[in-house]
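Translate structure to sequence.
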């Protein structure tokens, strides 16, 4: 049941009860009317209208805008008809109009159907009709009308909040259901497909030859599948139809044992001047491979698209250095961290490390890969790039970008 459905049921009951109340007032004051037959004719029309439209206010689908306008017109007609059938003295004393508090039901229909804006419009029309009926701004009339206006607008606002809450709850339930299904699939895949791929990788490496290339491809598929069931972000590995064709021709392609850098076209195209939101995980995930492990938080790391592209490019440059300088058997690890005030990406390898002063010497010699591809990008983003290395202990690159700097870059 919708969270607003009880409000429609309450409005249905309200219209019936207020009709009974208005009929009781009419019968009690029948002989006081100046033209009682005219008043009786309107009350008959009001009774028939309420009976015929009983189901129209039972749900949002049945309560159309055309019906609401007609319902409000019936109420306004009764208000404006009151001076024609009642005496001037009774009107001056503040006696109720012909529809009395039934009119509020018409306004509440607008509030529940369209929110506080519709309620404000409908209650304003009712207020104007009551002022015309009284012939001026009487104090008691103003108080009553303000009560109707404020109450209808407040109910309309509550309805809008309830609808937003319902949408949020529905979205949360869908996410929970999807998460449970992904966990179930992950368990099934782990117990079947991943085990087979891991076995193929080990057997292929042991046999060698074409089987070694097949094992390498199985290892890449295993890593991609693990990332897919964990985050749903990984892109297809680079082992494509061309590789399979080479295997069929018994001419396995040469592939270096070191970390495989993702090609430029594997990363999504990010315009340099774009400010749209982007999940950084989706840009870094394609770098994962048989010798590159990617660890990321369980929630999206949202950055402006241009900034995310620059940071992902810096990660790619760091992995290129691992492939070129750390040796054929080196492994690399990427760690993405989303801190409250900064985004940090750490690229670590188990290579031979960097001798002291080597980076400064490379920059003086004109080798600007580190200076431009990594430090330059981070500097443009307001961040820093730090190298932690010792001979024989591998190298660790920390890429840090403060979020205030990213926000300022996004605004510009």
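Result:
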């Amino acid at each position: 049941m919708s969270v607003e459905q009880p409000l429609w049921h309450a409005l249905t009951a309200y219209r019936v009860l207020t009709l009974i109340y208005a009929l009781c007032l009419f019968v009690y004051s029948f002989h006081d009317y100046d033209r009682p037959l005219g008043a009786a004719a309107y009350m008959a029309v009001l009774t028939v209208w309420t009976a015929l439209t009983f189901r129209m206010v039972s749900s949002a689908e049945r309560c159309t805008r055309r019906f609401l306008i007609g319902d409000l017109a019936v109420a306004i007609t009764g208000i404006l008809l009151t001076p024609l059938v009642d005496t001037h003295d009774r009107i001056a004393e503040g006696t109720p109009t012909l529809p009395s508090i039934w009119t509020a039901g018409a306004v509440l229909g607008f509030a529940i159907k369209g929110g506080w804006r519709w309620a404000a419009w409908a209650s304003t029309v009712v207020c104007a009709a009551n002022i015309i009926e009284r012939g001026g701004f009487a104090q008691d009339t103003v108080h009553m009308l303000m009560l109707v206006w404020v109450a209808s607008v407040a109910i309309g606002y509550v309805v809008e909040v309830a609808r937003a809450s319902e949408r949020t709850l529905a979205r949360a339930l869908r996410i929970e259901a999807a998460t449970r299904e992904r966990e179930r699939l992950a368990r099934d895949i782990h117990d079947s497909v991943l085990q087979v791929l891991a076995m193929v990788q080990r057997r292929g490496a042991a046999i060698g030859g074409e089987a070694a290339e097949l094992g390498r491809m199985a290892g890449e598929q295993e890593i991609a599948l693990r990332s897919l069931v964990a985050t749903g972000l990984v892109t297809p590995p680079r082992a494509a139809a061309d590789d399979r064709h080479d295997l069929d021709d018994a001419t396995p392609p040469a592939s270096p044992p070191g970390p495989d850098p993702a090609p430029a076209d594997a990363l999504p195209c990010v315009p340099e001047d774009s400010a749209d939101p982007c999940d950084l995980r989706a840009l870094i995930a394609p770098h994962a491979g048989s010798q590159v492990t990617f660890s990321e938080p369980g929630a999206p790391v949202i950055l402006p698209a241009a900034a995310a592209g620059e940071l992902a490019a810096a990660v790619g440059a760091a992995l290129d250095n691992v492939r070129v300088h750390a040796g054929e058997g080196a492994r690399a690890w990427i760690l993405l961290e989303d801190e409250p005030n900064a985004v940090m990406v750490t690229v670590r390898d188990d290579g031979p490390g960097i001798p002291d002063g080597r980076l400064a010497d490379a920059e003086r010699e004109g080798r600007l890969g580190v200076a431009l591809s990594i430090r330059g990008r981070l500097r443009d983003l307001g961040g820093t790039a730090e190298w932690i290395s010792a001979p024989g202990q591998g190298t660790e690159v920390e890429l840090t970008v403060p979020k205030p700097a990213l926000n300022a870059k996004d605004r510009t």
